[in-house]
Amino acid sequence: MTALTVNNEPVQYAMDPATPLVFALRDASNLTGTKYGCGTGECGACTVDIDGRAVAACQITLAACEGTFVTTIEGLSRDRGHAVQQAIIASNVSQCGFCIPGIVMSAAALLRDDRDPDEEAIVAAIDHLCRCGIQPRLIDAIRQAA
Length: 146
Ligand code: FES
Description:
Keywords: 2Fe-2S, Iron, Iron-sulfur, Metal-binding, Oxidoreductase. The chain has 146 residues and is of the alpha+beta class.
């Protein structure tokens, strides 16, 4: 058993401790907002918050998450009320939407640490792959959220 806290709820996973966190979240907890894309830590679709840091959930094992506090897109806010979510909705940024949860988690982590990030910091924080080409509008939306 691996014990951690997910979205403020204690959870025990009876899975191989070597399982990447993304599969525990999606398959055992049905938290499917955390997407699985590349599986190599490149795309950012699986980004969650672990103890205050944006982390690719495909690159960390359950064993490494023992005792941590994990927040997924489902736990970030109620009713999409986080400032980043509101700015993305208001700006109509999202297209296919697959990458958006991971981007929101990274942007939320950025704004928690830096209330007024410059463009360079935003670009660095949302260094995720998106085939829809939304990055310029996304940067504007994150600026609005800040
Ligand atoms: Fe984890 Fe792409 S699925 S970074």
